[in-house]
Amino acid sequence: MSDDDAEPGDDAATESWTDGGTVPVGVKLGSTRTVIALPDEDGGNRIVKSLTCMATYEDALTGEEKILYGEEAAREYPDRVQYMLRSGLPEDADRAEMTKTFFEAIIEANDIPEDSGVVYAIPTIDNPAGLENLRSVIEESSIGQELVESYPESLCGSIPAFGDDLEAIDEIFVAVNMGSTNLEASAYRRGEQLAPFTTGAVTGNEVDRMIANYVEEETQGRVNIDTQTAREYKEEHADFVDFEPFTDIIQQPGGGSHEFTIERSVMDAVNEYLDEAVDELANTFLPELGNDHMKVYQLALDQPIVLTGGMACIPGIVEEFEERLSEELDREVEATAADEPADAATVGAQRIAARLVENS
Ligand SMILES: Nc1ncnc2c1ncn2[C@@H]1O[C@H](COP(=O)(O)OP(=O)(O)OP(=O)(O)O)[C@@H](O)[C@H]1O
Ligand SMILES: [Mg+2]
Q1: Domain architecture of the chain: domains with CATH
Q2: Can you say how many angstroms the Cα of residue 344 is from the centroid of all Cα atoms in its chain?
Q3: Measured from the CB, is residue 82 less than 6 Å from ligand 1?
Q4: How far apart are CA 150 and CA 44, in angstroms?
Q5: 304 lines ligand 1 (CB under 6 A)
Q6: Which residues line ion ligand 2, judged by CB < 5 Å?
Q7: Phi-psi region of 70 (alpha: psi -120 to 50; beta: other; left: phi over 0)
C-alpha cells in the first residue's frame, strides 16, 4: 500500500461522517510527499501519506493503462516513476494532468469523501503559472464539494505548534518552512502573511545531493548512491543530538558486495544546511521584515519562531537552530516546532477546515 501509517479503505470511518454531513479535510500536495488528514471514527485524525509520484504500466491481459502511485511506484518502477511536483508546483499542463491523476488515485484508494470541506496548505512560491496549475488540480478534484479554501503552508504548519486548536491564528510570529525544494519564511499577524521570503538555494533536496557527494568522498570513490538513497540516509540517521555512524552494503556490479560505514557525510550536509538557513534568515529575511514592519518584527521575535516542514523533523534541529540564530543575531531568540513537523501543515489545514465547516 502507498500510505505509511493509515488504515486504507476504512469504510466505517468515512461512513459515520458522511451520515453526519460535511467532512473537514486537510491536504498538502508536497513535492516529496502528499499528506491528507481527516477525522476518524474515534474523534482522532486519520493521516494518509504518500510519496508524490506515480508510474503507469500496461495491464498484461487487457492492455489497459494502469496507475501506480507513491512508495509502490517508486520501488517497482524506478526507471519510469515521475515526481510531478519535483520543483514544488506543477510546472506545465502535463504535470498538472499527472497530479490530478495521482490525486484522484489516492482519494479513491483511501475513501476520502466527496462531501467534504477541504483546506489546502499551499507553498509560498513566486511562480504564478505553477500556482495556477495547482489551482486547477484543486478545483477539478472530486473532493471538497462543500467548500475549498487554501492557506499558506507555513501558517498551517504552525497551528499544531501553538496548541490543540487554532491559537496560531491569533498570534504574531515568524514561521520558517524547511521543505524539499524551498526554504520559506514569513511573519504572521493574526493569520495575515507579511514579508514572505522564499529561496530555492537552501533545501532538503540540496542536502540529499550533498550527502551523495560526501558519501563518495568519504568512501574514496568506492560508493556511489543516488539521491533517493541519500534522502533515506538523512531521514533515518540525521540527528543533532546523538548521531551514530551507520553501515550499509552495496552490491558490486560484477558480483559480491561491499560494506561501508558513514561517519561524516550525513551530518556535514545537514550542518551546512542549517548554517545556510540561519544565514538566509538572519541576513535577508529578518532585515527585510524589520524594514517593512518594524513593530511586527519586534513582537514576533519575542515569540518562538516556528519551524515547519520535513527538514524540521531532524532530532535536535530546533535547539540547534535557536542557538545558531541567537548567535548570528546577537540576541536570544527561541524556536519551536509541532511534534510531527512533516505532517503539521496538513493537520493545521484540517483544523481550519473543521472550523470553516462548522461556521458554514
Ligand atoms: N524524519 C525526517 N528527517 C529528516 N528529513 C526529513 C524527515 N522527513 C522528511 N524529511 C525531509 O524533508 C523534506 C520534505 O519536507 P516537506 O514534506 O515539508 O516538503 P514539501 O512540502 O514536499 O516540499 P516543498 O514545500 O519544499 O516543495 C525532504 O527533504 C525530506 O527528505
Ligand atoms: Mg512544502
Answers
A1: 11-145 (3.30.420.40), 154-360 (3.30.420.40)
A2: 9
A3: no
A4: 22
A5: no
A6: 30, 123, 179
A7: left
Q: What's phi and psi for 23, nearest 5 deg?
A: -95, 125
Rounded CA gap, 274 and 5, in Å? Answer: 29
Q: Whose CA is nearest to atom 24 of ligand 1?
A: 179
Distance 312 CA to ligand 2 centre (A): 12
Q: How far is CA 113 from CA 14, 22, 23, 244, in A?
A: 7, 9, 7, 43
Cell of 97: 494532468
Nearest CA to ligand 1 atom 4: 235
Beta strand 172-178 with 54-58 is unpaired
Give the sheet arrangement for strand 172-178, strand by strand.
192-199, 183-189, 172-178, 305-308, 335-337
Which residues sit opposite 308 in a β-bridge? 177
- How close is the Cα of 43 to the center of ligand 1, in Å? 28
Residues 32, 70: contact at Cβ < 8 Å? no
Q: Which helix (H) or strand (E) holds 43?
A: none
Q: Is 238 in the pocket of ligand 1 (CB under 6 A)?
A: yes
| Each residue's pLDDT expressed in tens, for the chain with a length of 360 residues | 444 444 444 444 444 454 568 999 999 999 999 999 999 988 889 999 999 999 999 999 999 999 999 999 999 998 999 999 998 999 999 999 999 999 999 999 999 999 999 999 999 988 999 999 999 999 999 999 999 999 999 999 999 999 999 999 999 999 999 999 999 999 999 999 999 999 999 999 999 999 999 999 999 999 999 998 999 999 999 999 999 999 999 887 778 888 999 999 999 999 999 999 999 999 999 999 999 999 999 999 999 999 999 999 999 999 999 999 999 999 999 999 999 999 999 999 999 999 999 998
